[in-house]
Design a protein that fits this description.
By secondary structure, this protein is an alpha/beta fold. The protein has 18 helices and 14 strands.
Length: 466
């Protein structure tokens, strides 16, 4: 900003920034003249205060705001990922090997044996991160262009955490038939498909059809990634409170993509008393639902046939898992739960109940946020699952692999570390990908899903051909 010395002082500027919620952390004088001083001022603030501070400064006499930058936006300038060659092209001989004429021999080798695409191209280590932009974070249907920064971030995580080359594919269509057709058409160049931020309920149809029609793993992270990490956290939380998955009463609220998958994952892991709750109340037998996923859940959850609202489901419940929205869970719900209760309030960015309020009533609390203990974060799941699936060349990611991945994540937390404030490892714990990869490969080999034995599993017998 430029400050006219005869009109304003920097002290007035600093006071205005502080009053608007900013904390000045650095000041650099760029240029000082007799009439004016130009300063570069770095301010820490909540993102919602950014526009307010700029507005206040622009309204002050003698102040000219020259430029405003945001370090989050600066990180995204020009995109966050790029493609780099693995070897340099320095001369004509190099060119003749990586491109024409030498590449023709490689192409014909793949033509004669399509399986060689896994050894002679990048296919064996690539994942397409596919979205239609209809359910981006908590922002909703904001379109494929606006989804691109999120998909780029996902690709960065794939690379940094698991060494996988992932590509953001943002589709300008909401038609399930078109999405399936497009993904099938581009699939020869990829070893796996990660569906991301596709709205419910069509995300279920799209994933199901792609799993049936492709011979590479397809994984909708919003569904199964959330479910795998939630199960991992719950397994450890139950150890903390001394309860068993088979006997506890679990209420799942918000029966969209993640909620449906969480219910299915809990049942696959051995839970017997699961209650799915949405705006319409407790899902159960006898009611007709337009959503086919709810019809399926109605047949396998709520064994006692409880009817009513969330309050009815919460009486005597041991576990609450929320993937809904803020304000859904009230103190009276917590007070009606069983002793040593567990609450996973996972709505983002604002959980179902304020953690500072809930922690007084529950034994173990987890959220989807990074500023509280026990963050339930999909990043703990998808890099290791895909690393394992790609390495053993599994055609599908089965429910058994997902349960194995959840148990592997839980196992990263050692028994002497486990406590109410630490039931789930950090995403930066380098053991997570290693544990999950190993569990996925072992499960794939045992079930016959593996079509390749990785070198570090060579002491095992060859899998049966599928």
């Amino acid at each position: 900003m430029e400050i006219q010395k005869s009109v304003a002082t920097f002290g007035e500027v600093a006071a205005a920034i502080g009053a608007a919620g900013g904390d000045i952390v650095a000041i650099d004088v760029i240029r000082s003249a007799k009439e004016a001083t130009t300063r570069d001022v770095t301010v820490n603030l909540h993102e919602s205060a950014n526009e307010q501070i700029v507005k206040v400064l622009k309204s002050m006499p003698g102040i000219r705001v020259v430029n405003v930058s945001d370090r989050t936006f600066l990180v995204h300038l020009g995109g966050k990922i790029e493609i780099s060659p693995k070897l340099p092209i320095k001369n004509r001989e190099d060119l003749s090997q990586v491109y024409t004429p030498g590449v023709a021999r490689v192409s014909m080798a793949i033509h004669n044996d399509p399986g060689k695409a896994y050894s002679l191209t990048m296919k064996r280590n690539t994942v397409a991160v596919v979205t239609d932009g209809t359910a981006v974070l908590g922002l909703g249907d904001i379109g494929p262009e606006a989804a691109m920064p999120v998909m780029e971030g996902k690709a960065m995580l794939f690379k940094q955490l698991a060494g996988i080359d992932a590509f953001p594919i943002c589709l300008n269509t909401k038609d399930p038939d078109a999405i399936v057709q497009i993904v099938k058409a581009i699939s020869p160049g990829f070893g796996g498909i990660n569906l991301e931020d596709i709205a419910s309920p069509r995300c279920f149809e799209i994933e199901r059809r792609l799993i049936d029609e492709l011979d590479i793993p397809v994984f909708h992270d919003d569904q199964h990634g959330t479910a795998v990490v939630a199960l991992a956290g719950l397994l450890n939380a139950l150890r903390v409170v001394g309860k068993q998955l088979e006997t506890v009463r679990i209420v799942v609220v918000g029966i969209g993509a993640a909620g449906v998958s969480i219910c299915n994952m809990l049942l696959a892991a051995g839970a017997r008393h699961v209650y799915a709750v949405d705006r319409e109340g407790i899902i159960g037998r006898g009611a007709a639902y337009r959503n086919p996923e709810w019809e399926r859940l109605a047949a396998v959850t709520n064994p006692e046939g409880i009817e009513g609202s969330l309050a009815d489901a919460m009486r005597g419940a041991d576990v609450f898992i929320g993937v809904s929205g803020p304000g859904v869970l009230q103190v009276e719900h917590l007070e009606s739960m069983a002793q040593d209760s567990i609450v996973f309030a996972m709505a983002n960015p604002n959980p179902e109940i304020e953690p500072d309020v809930a922690e007084r009533y529950v034994r173990v609390l987890a959220t989807g946020r990074s500023d509280y203990p026990n963050q339930i974060n999909n990043v703990l799941c998808f890099p290791g699952i895909f690393r394992g699936a790609l390495d053993c060349r599994a055609a599908t990611i089965t429910p058994a692999m997902k349960v194995a991945a959840a148990k592997a994540i839980a196992a990263v937390v050692q028994p002497d570390e486990l406590n109410e404030q630490y039931i789930i490892p950090s995403i930066f714990n380098d053991k997570v990908v290693e544990f999950v990869r190993k569990a996925v490969i072992e499960t794939a080999i045992e079930s016959g899903e593996a079509r390749r034995i990785p070198p570090d599993f060579m002491d095992r017998p060859e899998p049966e051909t599928r």
